[in-house]
Design a protein that fits this description.
By secondary structure, the chain is mainly alpha-helical. The chain has 2 domains: about 55 residues; about 220 residues, Urease accessory protein UreF (Orthogonal Bundle). The protein contains 13 helices and 2 strands; from the N terminus they run H-E-E-H-H-H-H-H-H-H-H-H-H-H-H. The protein has a two-stranded antiparallel sheet with strand order 1-2. A hairpin with a 4-residue loop joins strand 1 and strand 2. Helix 4 runs parallel beside helix 5 and helix 5 crosses helix 12. The chain is globular, with a radius of gyration of 34 Å. The chain starts with a helix and ends in an 11-residue tail after the last helix.
Length: about 290
């Protein structure tokens, strides 16, 4: 009997050592599992909240633009490109008569004529209408949008200029609606209730696509001046280098006109370019014409 008891004692000691270690191991495993579950819950619930409330990820870390800004730039470059089919190349805004009358004879006189049209004539007025239409459309104030559209259509000084701006406005909306459809644009067009001139059309389309008014304004004025220069270059005529020099020299006027128009109200509308307005009127009776206005 003593010998048998001596053999059992080591087994009892071994069990006494193993059981606590097993219990500790099991507790560690349970702790690891619970920690993993908690981490998974935090990751799946909190992380999406952070992602939805943070700023949009940039499309290209080196470009400085996020995806929305890149899309806006792409659309503005498309809509206000000379290749966008609104028929702008067929209008001169009275420049054709000014060339025939001798008011415009070279690059310098063309530059001065365009600077006046931009800062004190139709360029500034169109820019104001664009800004006001964009803001009314963005704010969804339909009654105000209708008043702006009606005033812009009535503000054109001649029949040919009326044809120019309404034809381009209609084409701009139709093409933009076909390629970049949106319910907001249809609602805005319906709110205008009638004829939509070109600057108002640009304001509506850019507002419908949530493109800010400031870049839209600069792109619009650049396209407007570029079309005027293109008409003058064919009429004087001028070379491509002179055309680019004129465009470069008008950069400050474009920037300042955009700033004035963005800060202006409808009460600030007005034109002091009487000779340019007469040119658009007298163009109707020219014997030979290359342009429709």
């Amino acid at each position: 009997m003593p010998a048998t008891r001596m053999r059992r004692k080591p087994r009892t000691r071994i069990r006494a050592m193993i059981i606590p270690r097993m219990i500790m191991a099991i507790m560690m495993i349970i702790t690891i599992i619970m920690t993993s579950i908690a981490t998974t819950i935090i990751t799946t619930t909190i992380t999406p909240m952070l992602m939805t409330t943070s700023e949009p990820a940039p499309a290209d870390a080196g470009s400085g633009m996020n995806a929305d800004e890149a899309a806006a730039l792409y659309r503005l470059m498309t809509w206000l490109s000379p290749s966008f089919p609104v028929g702008a190349f067929s209008y001169s805004s009275g420049i054709e008569w000014a060339v025939e009358a001798g008011d415009i004879t070279d690059a310098a006189s063309l530059r001065d004529w365009l600077a006046a049209m931009l800062t004190d004539g139709s360029g500034f007025c169109d820019a104001v209408f664009l800004a006001q239409a964009h803001r009314a459309a963005t704010a969804r104030v339909d009654s105000e949008l209708r008043e702006i559209a009606e005033l812009a259509a009535a503000f054109v000084p001649s029949r040919e200029r009326q044809l120019e701006t309404t034809t381009q406005g209609r084409a701009f909306i139709e093409i933009a609606r076909t390629a970049w459809a949106g319910e907001d644009l249809d609602r805005m067009v319906a709110a205008c209730g009638g004829v939509i001139v070109y600057p108002v059309a640009v304001g509506l389309v850019s507002a419908a696509h949530a493109i800010p008014v400031a870049p839209t304004m600069h792109a619009f004025l650049h396209a407007l001046v570029s079309n005027w220069i293109s008409a003058g270059a064919r009429l004087v005529p001028l070379g491509q280098t002179d055309s680019q020099r004129i465009l470069a020299s008008l950069e400050d006027e474009v920037v300042l006109t955009a700033k004035r128009a963005l800060e202006a109200s409808l009460d600030d509308l007005g034109s002091a370019t009487f000779r340019a307005d007469l040119a658009s009127l007298l163009h109707e009776t020219q014997y030979t014409r290359l342009f429709r206005s």
